[in-house]
Amino acid sequence: MKKILVIGAGGQIGSDLIPILRKKYGNDNVISAGYENDLPSYIKDNGPHTYIDVRNKKQIEQVICQYNINTIFNLASILSALAEKKLLLSYEVNFTGLINVLEASKENNVKQVILVSSIAAFGSYTPNELTPNDTIQNPNTIYGISKVFTELLGNYYAEKKGLDVRGIRLPGVISWKREPTAGTTDYAVDIFYKAILEKEYTCFLNENTRLPMIYMPDAINALINLLNADISYLKHKVDFNINSMSFTPKEIANLIKQRIPEFNIYYEIDPLRQSIADSWPNSLDDTVARKEWNWNPKYNINDMIDDMLFNLNIKLNKK
Length: 319
Ligand code: AKB
Fold this sequence. Notes:
Rossmann fold, 7-stranded parallel β-sheet, binds 2-amino-3-ketobutyric acid
């Protein structure tokens, strides 16, 4: 039976992942760990929750032992834009935190560790269109470097230390439950809030910046399907491209405008986030994930927009 610890539970992905894991594996078998104030009540009230600072290995070990954890999702990470401003914090969370999770897992008989990499693991020499799974990786951001480190160290523990470590490279994740913070792809979530509440949005990326994106239900499916994939088919471990949709700010704004005719988009470029976005791929080749664990996304851009607007209108009391 799985006893799952989700570290970084209060973030954008954890907030959607935990309810689904609890439904699948039982409320008491999924322990959420994050800062108390970050956790939404539907997570705190529906199963065990605890506090872990990923920078503190002892805390991780205590929780592993207290709950007999055999599976860990490590979602704790400082995202791309903030990482450029807070280097030391990023080293501690994205590098030391990762080492702590892997070492604590190895030393305390955890069987599986799921890690999250990102399209940020690529760089300006990486082929831009349909980026191959195995290709040049030369990120020029601390976040991107930490994601290459995540992939390499995860693969190392899988190959040399007998730990079952797996992970995917997430594109920008779009969701309505919890807003992302301090990333470069965040505009693709902000735009929905502003379209509903203010009928206009000022975008910090230029109108033609094409980036790979994914809708949260597909991202969650990817994580859970990879968790359960037959290991004998996995030639890769922590470095799977997954592709779903790609669009520019102008394209998504036009599609939102078809549903909310009063909506308008304006642009005020943030040089930091624009330069980060310019170093990331336009789209990804995910043949490897399709072949090794049957990756197959369900949502296209129109399905995603309809579902986002439906759920956000309810959340923001506009219907
Ligand atoms: C970010 O924008 O930093 C993240 C990512 C693509 O990893 N959403």
